[in-house]
Model the fold of this input.
Amino acid sequence: MSETSPTHSSAPHKERLLWLVAIGFFMQTLDATILNTALPAMSQELGESPMKMQSVIVAYALTTAMLIPATGWVADRFGTRRIYGLAIGLFVLGSVLCALSPSLPFLIAARVVQGVGGAMMLPVGRLAVLRTYPRGEFIRAMSFIAIPGQVGPLLGPTLGGWMVEYASWHWIFWINVPVGLIGLWATWRWFPQSAPVVVHRFDVKGYSMLAFGMVAISVALDGMSGMGLGMALVVVLMVFGLASLASYWMHALRVDEPLFPPALFKVRSLRVGLLGNLFARFGSGAAPFLIPLLLQIGLKMSPMHAGMMMLATVLGSMLVKRIAVRTVQHFGYKRVLQINSVMLALMLASFGLVAEGTPTWLLLVQLFIFGGFNSMQFSAMNSVTLKDMEGEFASSGNSLLSMVQMLAMSMGVALAGALLTGFGDMWPEDGGGRLLSIRATFVTVALMTLAATLVFSQLDSDEPVRPAPDGGDA
Done:
């Protein structure tokens, strides 16, 4: 049955739509932050090394990155209400499969199912809000939806540690089920039916090349951590992945309706912002995976203790987010992003100095300061990337940024896993070898983060500062 054009939504139904989209965002942010704290406990029950659990994170992030370019077309083709309900359903199904996982390969496959739902949930929800609210009210509506994005990370680490310590890691996935079922019921009841939309031809060939390139490169990086892929296969995947991405670019230059118009990249701020996001997130994207390992495996903290320590990072992030805009307005994008990239790298490297005798108060200060610099980096990078996106390019630029964010996180975690394996071969796991491997990995990802300063040096010193369209803060 095709969806029909809606009548003017009443105010209560419009507000319920915001709550509904917020529920989906809350499930995603809560799931991500709970999972990081639970990985060591999950590895123990699944009979895997805690240093090689990065595939659980990579599978979700990579699936999301791969599907984001197609979400807008799918929502236009089949209707936002139908696709949003499907997204919640798949996320809940994936959560159930994760909770029932008897092995790491099964868990990775279940995370892929979760990722399919997660890839559609926020973009489609945001699209429905954009079509329901007039332009003047859109920013207020999106600000309301962003609140769960702050509450989820605040609850996640402690709740995850508590569940692992006093119940089992399976409950970090079971908790999504009642929330998701409420979301499904509310979607059927209150989600607006979208008006008919002219659906353009989807660039299947271009999408296939882009998706294969992302998957091949990420799997190759993950294979370097010893997930069973031989070195020859890793090299072949890397070569074909790079060739596929290059082929997509040449394809986009000669077709009428590519996924991402090449004209997008004529905008200097977008080019610099996307590349800066990619390199900066190699380090900051790996940190949520590495910090729980440092606390639980390196320093022998309990899951509950580690989860409470992680709150310092969230509090630092929330505090800085309040002053990020004023800071950029005062100093400018170029200076803020170059200096902040260096400070972010230094804070990542500082975790390489943590030893078993490090005072708790000092570690809390490190986590708090790291959270602040990380938040400043995300806010400034997202803003400079999207600030010049207008008209028809606004949606494409936003989707491209979201894809790069998730891809960079996937690659950052995969690289961290490969580094842990490499350093683990140098030092035996007993006798403090695991702590040494984690510390060395922090220093290495810090050096990779410094590469972002070279990218941001390409910004103009007098780059104008003005609000950007909503781009999220993944």
